[in-house]
User: What shape does this take?
Amino acid sequence: MRIIKVNDYEEMSRKAADLIASQVILNPKSVLGLATGSTPIGTYENLAELHKKGRVDFSQVTTINLDEYCGLEPTHDQSYRYFMNKHLFSKINIKLENTHVPNGKADDIDAECARYDDLIEKAGGIDLQLLGIGHNGHIGFNEPSDEFVPDTHCVSLAESTINANSRFFRTRDEVPRKAITMGIRPIMHARRVLLLASGEDKKEILKKALFGPITPRVPASILQFHKDLIVITPIDI
Ligand code: PGA
Assistant: This one.
């Protein structure tokens, strides 16, 4: 694991964007695994800026997002499809048909999960997976549990996740209770993983994930086994 210690959120975001841009420059047909949440917003802003300056071309890139809430239309302003369109896809020259987010409105959720795993496999896996980390150690919506779940699956969100994400909804009741998440296998098979974390509130969980016991109770801890994990963080760990 390589830990790149930075001064602040802005530097983390710039460095993360530079790394993603380098990946795309080296392989214009890269498959990027992308994340939502507050953490990657600055990274996406910097990527959009690099694109605007003509430094990086996304026309042949494929993206595969980690997760989506069940029950929200893609046009709902809290859906992760909406988030990605707003913060990144509308600002770069990616083909929308090459961007993938699980369909949280699918009638048959099991079939949707199987479709998503198939799609990841057909894309040849993920070249670079961007990750944030939840306060409970989740990656994507792989919540703490008794086992690591390898495939895309439907999860009941942890109470702490519902609490954390309620800041984006008018009321806590509006936060969906279920989501579809990519499983641990494609994340661990990604050729490179880039984990971002900022804020003192993430310090304890980041330490546990990177240096504590490897356990599905702290899903991010499995990243200790990844052969090319890069952590960029302003947190002193
Ligand atoms: P955040 O979420 O970036 O909004 O802190 C991270 C996560 O829950 O994975």
In short: DSSP finds seven helices and ten strands in the chain.
